[in-house]
Design goal:
Largest sheet: 7 strands, mixed
Distance between the termini: 58 Å
Helix content: 25-40%
Radius of gyration: 23 Å
Bound molecules: pyridoxal-5'-phosphate
Number of helices: 15
Strand content: 15-25%
Mean pLDDT: 95
Number of strands: 16
Strand order of the largest sheet: 4-12-11-10-7-5-6
Low-confidence stretches: none
Length: 439
């Protein structure tokens, strides 16, 4: 009795609080120091590019909710596909069974993937897609009796937060606490302007040792590093070098995939195609967590054997979840519509025009554009930390002004849903110009 009374008292207090306040009682947020963080806006509704919080305040989602949402929030086409699938077959295990959405999605992906990609393996998120690729590269050689236990990756890369993906990531404060418990990864410079030779020579020296199973990279754009961009020409050379030296190449397209760079995949800009690709984020149009790792036939063959021990012993409970597959099929169909393809080009043209306008601003150091991605680096005296004070000042300014942008250090970037209108995008640019006045 006493227990119930106590519980009811708590409930009354909880009912008096708003969602933002109640959130802080139990929820632990990602990448958040809760001691210094203030309460977060509670989003209660979203449609198209807009988010609304519990006080009715409107925000333009100018980063597609961490790059996952190309077709707008609460998209009816994807929602209907999900609903229909939920009423037909919500889930069945993929070990020992298959189902229509997985078959159709695989066939659909084959239409749009580089032609050397022949097999697809499902998992749950970008990090696990990367884990699968890394494990496959190691086991491919192990199955052949060859010991290769190291990975090559780019400096400042981001491949996810599970152990393998984290090891391959180069942003130090994400991984500092775990050094010593990670896979062996050697980092090389990104072939950005001025570092092309240094980068390519570093790769050449490493692959010669025969110790490396794979080279993993974010093709053309390093998202989490602040939309750092480099030329396809150099990545093409690097892939060729790896191929000549029996090192598998893994294109982590978790961020770049499904139209972000102006083509379906960043690897569509390359002559030499990677051996494996990691997909997630926009795969289901920002609705259901799902990921895919894709492979060449040669890699699949490295596991195809009378010996059961040579199989890939990896899986997740929700592998190839039919509802996720249905969302992905609807999402890829939307991507293929002329309307969305035109929108992607229109956003790109608008970004280029804004770049022309803003690049000579006294506070702007550099700007870059690829596809729907725009990035602007603010001139600073000293290197800014990822979550530094300048970054927080800008973030708060954007939120106050009803724009969701998450600057990285001194870099402001835009990666909007493809359905953003010219007027909505103009508002984002205008707010960035205003932000430059306060920094
Ligand atoms: C976001 C991201 C990941 C990790 O994906 P999660 O779904 O957050 O695990 C991996 N690689 C790249 C390039 C990413 O942008």
């Amino acid at each position: 009795m006493h227990y119930f009374c106590k519980k009811n008292t708590v409930n009354i207090y909880i009912r008096l609080m708003n969602l933002s306040e109640r959130d802080l009682i139990y929820n632990w947020h990602p990448y958040t120091q809760h001691k210094t963080a203030t309460a977060f806006p509670a989003i209660v509704k979203a449609k198209g590019v807009y988010l609304w919080d519990e006080n009715g305040k409107e925000y333009i989602d100018a980063i597609a909710s961490w790059w996952v949402n190309p077709f707008g929030h609460s998209n009816t086409v994807i929602a209907k596909a999900i609903y229909k699938q939920l009423l037909t077959l919500e889930h069945v295990l993929f070990g020992g069974f298959t189902h229509k959405p997985a078959v159709l999605l695989a066939e659909k992906l084959m239409e749009i993937l580089p032609s050397n990609q022949k097999k697809i393996f499902y998992s749950d998120n970008g990090s696990t897609a990367v884990e699968v690729a890394i494990k496959v590269a190691f086991q491919y050689f192990y199955n052949k009796g060859i010991k290769k236990s190291k990975i090559i990756a780019f400096e400042d890369a981001f491949h996810g937060d599970t152990f393998g993906a984290m090891a391959a990531s180069g942003i130090s404060f994400f991984t500092e606490a775990f050094q010593g418990s990670l896979l062996e990864v050697v980092r090389i410079p990104v072939p950005v302007s001025g570092k092309e030779n240094e980068s390519i020579n570093a790769l050449k020296n490493l692959v010669k040792t025969g110790e490396f199973a794979s080279f993993i990279f974010e093709p053309l754009v390093q998202g989490a590093a602040g939309m750092v961009m480099y030329d396809a020409k150099y990545l093409d050379q690097m892939i060729a070098i790896c191929k000549q030296n029996n090192v598998f190449t893994i294109a982590d397209e978790v961020m770049t995939g499904f139209g972000k760079t102006g083509k379906t995949f960043a690897t569509d800009y390359l002559q030499n195609k990677p051996d494996m690709m990691c997909l997630s984020k926009a795969l289901t149009g920002g609705t259901i967590p799902m990921a895919i790792t894709t492979f060449t036939q040669e890699i699949f063959h490295g596991f195809f054997d009378d010996d059961v021990n040579k199989a890939l012993f990896h899986g997740h409970t929700f592998t190839a979840n039919p509802t996720g597959c249905a969302a992905a099929i609807a999402s890829i169909s939307l991507l293929q519509t002329p309307k969305i393809q035109t929108n992607i080009q229109t956003i790109n043209k608008q970004h280029l025009a804004f770049q022309e306008k803003i690049k000579h601003h006294p506070k702007v150091a550099t700007t870059r554009v690829l596809g729907v991605i725009f990035a602007l680096e603010i001139k600073v005296e000293t290197q800014q930390s990822y979550y530094g004070s300048l970054r927080n000042k800008m973030y708060n300014f954007f939120i106050e002004n009803g724009i969701l942008l998450r600057p990285v250090g001194n870099i402001i970037y835009i990666l909007p849903p493809y359905i953003i209108t010219k007027k909505q995008l103009q508002k984002v640019y205008f707010t960035i110009e205003k932000a430059l006045e306060i920094v």
